[in-house]
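User: Please fill in residues for this 117-position structure.
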């Protein structure tokens, strides 16, 4: 039998002690995360992540990411200058090869799904 997993109350899952965000470029950001599930082959990871206000760089060199914003407000900046505001309830996809910046306007929590190549 193949079992399934469910995760409720994403806004209240304990993420542990926040740590400094290594790719932060503005705002002394702190982040925390909790991995909820990893596939048997290690190629898919599901978790919850939270980050404080500020700005950081991001690259999707080895994986793609699907994000569902649980709380907070961000602006994503692509490499060609395109910007998109995203808030609670919205879903976004960062495809393999994407690079850009996240501006966190207020503490933000997301559900993420990483798919590694």
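Assistant: Residues filled in for all 117 positions:
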């Amino acid at each position: 039998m193949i079992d399934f997993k469910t995760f409720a109350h994403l806004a209240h899952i304990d993420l542990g002690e926040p740590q400094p965000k290594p790719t932060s470029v503005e705002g002394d950001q702190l982040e925390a995360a909790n991995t909820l599930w990893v596939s048997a082959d290690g190629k898919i990871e599901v978790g919850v992540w939270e980050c404080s206000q500020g700005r950081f760089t991001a690259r999707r060199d080895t994986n793609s990411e699907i994000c569902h914003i649980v709380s907070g407000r961000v602006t994503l900046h692509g490499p060609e200058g395109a910007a998109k505001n995203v808030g609670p309830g919205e879903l976004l996809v960062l495809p393999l090869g994407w690079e850009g910046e996240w501006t966190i306007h207020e503490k933000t929590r997301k559900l993420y799904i990483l798919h590694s190549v």
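For context: The radius of gyration is 14 Å.
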